[in-house]
Automatic annotation (TrEMBL):
Keywords: 4Fe-4S, Iron, Iron-sulfur, Metal-binding, Repeat. Coiled coil: none annotated. InterPro entries: 4Fe4S_Fe-S-bd, 4Fe4S_Fe_S_CS, NADH_quinone_OxRdtase_chainI. Pfam families: Fer4_7. One of its GO terms (cellular component) is membrane. The keyword 4Fe-4S applies. The keyword Iron applies. It comes from Candidatus Aquitaenariimonas noxiae. This is Ferredoxin. GO terms for molecular function: 4 iron, 4 sulfur cluster binding; metal ion binding; oxidoreductase activity, acting on NAD(P)H. Residues 37-66, 71-100 form the 4Fe-4S ferredoxin-type domain.
Amino acid sequence: MIRPAKMIRQVLSSLFKKPATNLYPFNKFEMPDKFRGKIVFDPELCVGCKLCMKDCPAGAINIKKVGEKKFEAEFDLGKCVYCAQCTETCFKKALKFTGEFELASLDREKLKITFNAKPDDTASK
């Protein structure tokens, strides 16, 4: 048990120290480079090997072919465990994690992100 005099001394000493916590959401955090936040997909880099989809332990990735050499991806952030296995598996680096971490939602459908392939320029010619 802490004696009252020792406890008062601790309280008074902490009054003159800077706070141990940040005032989040007013002071946003700077995320480190290797932080595993929201995932982004670059359909231009994707070759459609589907290794990321096969390697995902949570089954959060679905890759669909939408044209010759064009693919779109659907990510279910509600299923994702942010293990980074997909980004390590992708040899073309089409998948990357961002520093965005405020992903909470009451609607599970809002946690599904679809990255569409860009329209094929050769089809219009």
